[in-house]
Amino acid sequence: MGRKWNNIKEGKAKNDAAKTRVYAKFGVEIFVAAKKGEPNPESNAALKAVLERAKTYNVPKSIIDRALEKAKGGSDETYDELRYEGFGPNGAMLIVDALTNNVNRTYSDVRTAFKKNGGNLGVNGSVAYMFDSVAVFGLEGKSEEEVLEILMEADVEVRDIVAEDEQVIVYAEPDQFHAVQQALKNAGITEFTVAELTMLPQNEVKLEGDDEVTFRKLIDALEDHDDVQQVYHNVDFGDE
């Protein structure tokens, strides 16, 4: 189903500078999730999901604690959740999710990133209908059959369970995220290679030559922006 799990996480930090950006973005995301409800993951499902994802990215505990303390301290800092949809070369489509305290700045920067790298912004709904919202979990040490049995015994419905890159990947509906997570944890599985609420394209495209180079530059420009939390797209980069 959809793109391989490692393509979902292709934007993961590859060096110290990138890790710093990723950690900072998680700090904002954790703060926003904590401010929406209680700063306690046991009573705040959104926060719990963010913290689980942060764990798979090895976000330091100090970053997490600082964001939670900031939320508990009643900071009046506010962020808007934004989603941009746009196009790259030859059928490439992107969804860009952002958290910002300056909407005009972020819109201008995202639009510029598209314009300078062979793309253009679309209107709301122009791209999202070609993607599916999915909960994805990756785990090691179990077979597909074992994972299926665990979830069936817990009466948890999933979309698909597949073996990819020596791991088992579980795809489920977004509202099943916590049910899948809890069922696996009850079976003694506490470490995940991926635990995401993500957007998977219904169809993928391949780019070649200059188109691929340009598109990669667009992805990099967007992911490097401090306000951009997630970039989803429908380009298949092969075995990456």
UniProtKB/TrEMBL annotation:
Keyword Cytoplasm: yes
TACO1/YebC-like second and third domain boundaries: 79-235
GO biological process terms on file: regulation of DNA-templated transcription
Gene3D superfamilies in alphabetical order: 1.10.10.200, 3.30.70.980
Keyword Transcription regulation on entry: yes
SUPFAM superfamilies named among the record's database cross-references: YebC-like
Main location: cytoplasm
Cellular compartment(s): Cytoplasm
UniProt-recorded Gene Ontology molecular function terms: DNA binding
Protein name: Probable transcriptional regulatory protein EL26_07225
Domain TACO1/YebC-like N-terminal: 3-74
Classification via NCBIfam families: PRK00110.1 (NF001030), PRK12378.1 (NF009044), YebC/PmpR family DNA-binding transcriptional regulator (TIGR01033)
Signal peptide start and end residues: none
Lineage: superkingdom: Bacteria
Family classification: Belongs to the TACO1 family. YeeN subfamily.
GO cellular component, one term: cytosol
Entry keywords, A to Z: Cytoplasm, DNA-binding, Transcription, Transcription regulation
